[in-house]
Amino acid sequence: MSLLLVTHRACLGHSNGEGHPEEPGRLRAVLAALEAEEFSTAIQEQAPRATEEQLLRVHPRHHVEGILAIRPEGEAILMLDGDTGMSAGSAEAALRAAGAGVAAVDAVCRGEVRRAFCAVRPPGHHAEPDRPMGFCLFSNAAIAARHAQAVHGLGRVAVVDFDVHHGNGTQAAVEADPTILFLSSHQSPCYPGTGLESETGVGNVFNATLAPGADGEAFRAVWRDRLLPALESFGPELVIVSAGFDAHARDPLAQLRVREADFNWLTAEICRIADRLCGGRVVSTLEGGYDLEALAASAAGHVRALLCA
Ligand SMILES: [Zn+2]
What we know:
By secondary structure, the chain is α/β, with parallel strands linked by helices. The chain has a single domain (about 5-309), classed as Histone deacetylase domain (Arginase, Chain A, 3-Layer(aba) Sandwich), CATH 3.40.800.20. The protein is about 40% helix and about 15% strand. It is built from nine helices and ten strands. It has an eight-stranded parallel sheet, sandwiched between helices. Helix 1 packs across helix 9, helix 4 (about 90-110) packs across helix 5 (about 140-150) and helix 8 (about 260-275) runs parallel beside helix 9 (about 290-309). The protein is globular. Zinc ion binds near residues 163, 164, 165, 246 and 288. Zinc ion binds next to loops. Pfam families: Hist_deacetyl. GO terms for molecular function: histone deacetylase activity. It comes from Teichococcus deserti. InterPro entries: HDACs (IPR000286), His_deacetylse_dom (IPR023801), His_deacetylse_dom_sf (IPR037138), Ureohydrolase_dom_sf (IPR023696). Belongs to the histone deacetylase family.
């Protein structure tokens, strides 16, 4: 069975404003890398819009309606906080980015494919249930997890987040829910300042912090020694990956020294566990990564590992 690649051109129509690191060129770079011959067996699907019902499984109505009501005209950008902007195309992009995860879950849970990758933006893991934050409007990974439970009847879903920043939004959405496991490695200190190892939810949250300058070996060690064993003992029925590539040594927003080979290794380990515990079901969605060259190479390596592992 092949890999599903879900994307939508509307995700290129979202802007946080001129000079912002979370820019359309990121997605263009990823999609260009995925045009390579080696990915030609992937099934491509256009992301549907997430429905109100799907969004409301994570966000209160005021958040959903508030985001969808913001439609700046022309080239105008409305800043929601110091980092997060919305342009004319942002609401549509956010609906497609969340909808991509839902469509990927549908395909994987129906057994049409074992793995899926959502090449989308805006990212989602900083968006808290009741507020946008850190370049994120809707909590894409948490919405996908809840959809798997509500529509496909899954009991236990794991969210694995290796973006260099703590996925505070995903954690906030699931930390009181023992049926969803949240695992995150991230640089500390770093934005957004949450993700202390003492934050454990109801025993379903595992945070592993890495000091600025930590390299791929340190990154692999926290996954090998602490986070992947937690994934195995949870026994997920589906693994959702928040795939951010800003832990890369070249990334301008953080100071870790992770390389493509380390992301590849982790992806293969996640797939190995999924193969053993849940029929190989892995749905990955793009989060951060701000050096275009490193992002494109890392995302391509990640998808290669999803395809081959
Ligand atoms: Zn990030």
